[in-house]
Amino acid sequence: MWGETETVSCIACGDDVARQDAREYDKHGDRWDRDGKDFEYLCKPCFRSLSKHARDGLEAALEDAGAGEVDDEEFLSRFLTDTRGEPAGRE
């Protein structure tokens, strides 16, 4: 309806913000390809603090470490152990 403000939740901090005050987040890093996607949102302060580094392989690394399946302590331990090496393509 006209005049209503859509509200979305920030995936980083959990705050509810007006959609117009949020930024779209695409976990695959391609927010321009919109076909068949449901976007998540970040509030502007969280978006500004977001690392803009390449995310190639990030989703696989998160899944391999048990994201959403194990407790936080176990997840962090696995993730840090798996990702402590040099980033691919760097010497």
Give an overview in words.
With 91 residues, this protein is an alpha+beta fold. The chain has 3 helices and 4 strands; from the N terminus they run E-E-E-E-H-H-H. A two-stranded antiparallel ribbon has the order 1-2. A two-stranded antiparallel ribbon has the order 3-4. The protein is globular, with a radius of gyration of 16 Å. The termini are far apart. This is Small CPxCG-related zinc finger protein. It comes from Halobacterium jilantaiense. It holds the Pfam family DUF7562. InterPro entries: DUF7562.
Number of helical stretches of at least 4 residues? 3
Low-pLDDT runs of 5+ residues are none
Widest β-sheet, arrangement of strands: 1-2
Give the C-alpha Rg.
16 Å
* Biggest sheet layout: 2 strands, antiparallel
* Number of separate domains: 2
The proportion of strand residues reads 15-25%
Question: What sort of overall outline do the alpha carbons produce when their principal axes are compared?
Answer: globular
Structure summary, number of beta strands: 4
Mean pLDDT: 82
Category from helices, strands and their pairing: alpha+beta
Write the layout of secondary structure elements.
Blueprint lengths: L6 E3 L6 E3 L3 E4 L14 E4 H6 L8 H7 L7 H12 L8
Antiparallel strand pairs: 1-2, 3-4
Short description:
The protein is globular, with a radius of gyration of 16 Å. The protein folds into 2 domains: 7-49; 54-84, no CATH class.
